[in-house]
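User: Need the bound-state model for 2-oxoglutaric acid:
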Amino acid sequence: MGKKKPFTPPPDSPAWPNQTAFRVAERTWKRRDLPPELLASIIDPGGNPSPAVQANRLVPITLAYNPPTLSNLFGPSPETDSNGRATAYSAPEIPGLILIPGLITPEGQVQVVKASLKDYTALPNVTNLDTHWDIPSRGLWHMYEQSLHSEERQKDEALIPMRHDGTVEGAKSAAAAFRVGKVANGSSDKDGENALKSKTTSTSGIEVPDTTSTQIIIDLPTTDTQNLKAITASEALKRLRWTSLGFQYNWSTKEYHLDRRPPFPPLIDELATQVVKSVENITGYNAERWISEAGIINFYQERDALMAHQDRSEINTEAPLISFSFGNSSVFLIGSENRDDTPIPILLRSGDVLVMHGNSRRAYHALPRILGGTCPDYLTPESVNDAQWRAFYNYLKDARINVNVRQVY
Ligand SMILES: O=C(O)CCC(=O)C(=O)O
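Assistant: Bound-state model below.
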């Protein structure tokens, strides 16, 4: 008798008991063998003409401004009204969600991807790698590029050492002063070394520093790192999951560190601010009030996923959350504040922008699936007039990058 294949229950099977509707949707969309009829059910704001629009799952809305007048990195959306104003969409099933497909031009996408990989993965922005590896101050991308140019690549590729207590290579040469902190007992800032001199009271009544902090504290690992070893820059890039911008996020307490605030990158601030402006008429949140205070850049390899979660760490609940997608397309699920509600699946493509405000700001959402092989042709090195781009494309063709920006206070 032949060997029996292990049983995998179909997504809606009673063999998945006591699962919330959101969890069932996540498991459904995680599948490597997504059936064509399931793929056909996805809401695709960038599809032209979009069947989702025809099915009233997306409703065209008019933006306050014609996007190219706000930023030279904004293109016109695929559809424009008679005044030339771009069309964005709301999704009636998820009140407060706004989708602006194809907002970022190919040139804009190239700029943001390059900056995300090269500039924002270097100190003073802290990445998931910094906890475990002592990335030299010249930065991960710089090391990676050097390894690409090295003739005897395998032999010459430098290793990134493990981080050991008290040793931060970057501290020796970087302009900022670095300290290594212990996340476990929260004692890293007991002595007030990082106390900020200038504080301002936000609309939420919290005292928020209005200056950026030059001191970076890298939390030491709370788990055993015995099995980790020094790695090459290309290995490290595959393990890169996130980098944080502005107020640094404490992943353990799920709060922002008021005393850890590297300067927010002007390019991302500008794009986010102009998106906020473009949707002022819909959100009612005036761009004058907007401050790009914190951001996370998520780096996904093809098999990565982001589990269902709510973004609840921001105190300012009126400000929208702005989210940009680059590289391979993905399936984005968003529901309500209750995991028992079935989420809707949305296809996010490179250059798309998503705005969460109102009810959707606190809705559960997840990213169960990256769709490999969907990085757009206009991003291939042959299509982009930039000699440096080839190395970035080499990474992006198998990846997705999400840049999201929040006003915290
Ligand atoms: O990658 C995405 O599009 C979603 C990211 C996200 O939900 C988050 O960082 O909270």
